[in-house]
Design brief:
binds adenosine monophosphate, elongated, BirA Bifunctional Protein, domain 2, 2 domains, 427 residues, 15 helices, Rossmann fold, five-stranded mixed sheet
């Protein structure tokens, strides 16, 4: 019986690995420039880490978590996102301290039981940052700046940055009262999911992707109209900083992100080139109450998460090019029989000790085919080893890019090889 991978998961290999490495390396470089350090948390946590932070009424907690009992009857959940686990880790390891900004980044796989479609999977990868310790709006701008720089460095040109403010808990209370008044008479027109959402957690109606629900929300009161003076000032300062940094943004008054923990500044980066409902590449926001909600001190924080798979998908769709870091010198040894292969081990050992990327044919096919394969696979030198070479103790090195050929006395002048194949640095 053929066994396939579970629905909504994928194997990543070949060219996709190059894209992925480029995306991750670009992120690492930017995070380092902005002074973030890496954190790795477990892929599963006690379920309450997520239910208490993301919110009981959210789709994620209601329908999308991979939750299971372990052998001792404890409820565990595969992480559906990164922030809650990081906050748990920060509290548990007492990583915070007063007056110090804790800047962390992560790269990891996430799990959500969603209906798989293009750009939406059940296991997917995210990279993100969390900046923990201040509610200074300059940091909000810095976090958005990092997100923006990251996508620019990947080569994207037409992404749209949406920003909004959800206000603090007091602003939200006022807004919710008005929002409930507005929705109540329209309730029958909302989808079943939204009707349930409205009962449990009315703000989550904004997460609905159905056009019928979206059109009802189009003329609803807007959260940003209910901001208190502090939250208004705060948002204004964030926007001022973005202007100074020359970061283009669009205020989206209906932007209300899918987790309960968000407060004040929220943002999303979307692409109109992603023509499905899944047009967000990343997003984030401030979560000033989450740390205390999970048992830590009152520490404000802000962060974002980017979907690596979706970013990769769009890079491929837009044909964005990047330079792959490959070793300049790649040597392929072609042996004519088993005896030659064993003789070649000594040459391979020498080359690998010299940190030269090299490999050997393991089955003895036709020489022409082997040379073509080496050329197709980016080798620039080949060394052919047959009985003649063994008997004479010499080697023939072919430069297959420049069509040159060299003879080396392998027994007495090993170092000559390095002279011919040249320095072994990255392109
Ligand atoms: P979220 O944690 O929901 O704010 O998502 C942040 C980013 O992760 C999104 O903008 C997507 O790029 C990515 N993402 C979220 N859910 C999925 C999924 N099911 N499959 C693939 N990527 C996802």
């Amino acid at each position: 019986m053929k066994i396939s991978s579970p629905r909504g998961t994928s194997d990543i290999y070949g060219e996709d690995i190059d894209y992925r490495n480029f995306i991750i390396n670009t992120a690492r470089k930017i995070f380092e420039i902005f002074n973030y350090s890496e954190i790795i948390t477990p892929a599963f946590e006690y379920t309450q880490v997520f239910s208490r932070s993301i919110g009981e009424g959210t789709d994620i907690v209601q329908k999308e978590m991979y939750t299971f009992m372990d052998r001792k009857g404890r409820s565990l959940t595969l992480r559906p996102e990164g922030t809650a686990s990081i906050v748990r880790a920060v509290i548990e390891n007492k990583m915070y301290s007063e007056n110090m900004l804790l800047k962390l980044f992560y790269i990891g796989n996430m799990f959500r039981y969603e209906r798989p479609q293009k750009g939406r999977m059940r296991e997917f990868w995210q990279l993100g940052i969390e900046s923990i310790g201040t509610d200074n709006p300059v940091i909000d701008a810095e976090v958005i700046w990092i997100l923006n720089s990251f996508f620019i460095k990947l080569g994207f040109k037409n992404l749209i940055l949406l920003v909004n403010s959800m206000g603090c808990s007091r602003c939200r209370e006022k807004f919710l009262a008005e929002f409930k008044k507005y929705i109540k008479p329209e309730l029958g027109k909302l989808c079943n999911d939204c009707q349930n959402r409205f009962e449990k957690n009315p703000l989550r109606v904004f997460d609905c992707k159905k056009n019928s629900c979206k059109s009802i929300l189009a003329s609803s009161p807007e959260v940003s109209s209910y901001l208190c003076s502090g939250c208004k000032r705060n948002f204004k300062e964030v926007l001022e900083c973005l202007k100074i940094l020359k970061i283009k943004y669009r205020i989206d008054k209906n932007l209300v992100r899918g987790f309960d923990y968000y407060t004040k500044t929220i943002f999303e980066i979307i692409s109109e080139d992603l023509q499905s409902a899944q047009n967000a590449l990343g997003g984030g926001g401030r979560y000033d109450n989450l740390i205390s909600q999970l048992g830590g001190p009152e520490i404000p924080a802000i962060g974002f998460a980017v979907g690596i798979d979706r970013t990769m998908m769009l890079m491929k769709q837009l044909n964005l090019k990047f330079k792959k870091l490959t070793r300049k010198t790649r040597v392929y040894l072609i042996t004519m029989n088993k005896n030659c292969q064993i003789y070649s081990l000594d040459i391979l050992k020498y080359l690998r000790e010299m940190e030269v990327t090299c490999d050997i044919n393991f089955s003895n096919k036709n020489l022409k085919k082997e040379i073509k394969w080496a050329r197709d696979n980016n080798y620039n030198f080949i060394i052919i080893i047959g009985e003649d070479e063994i008997n004479s103790g010499s080697l023939t090195i072919k430069d297959i890019k420049k069509f040159k050929q060299y003879k080396v006395d392998w027994k007495n002048q090993k170092d000559k090889i390095m002279e011919i194949i040249g320095a072994n640095y990255y392109d």
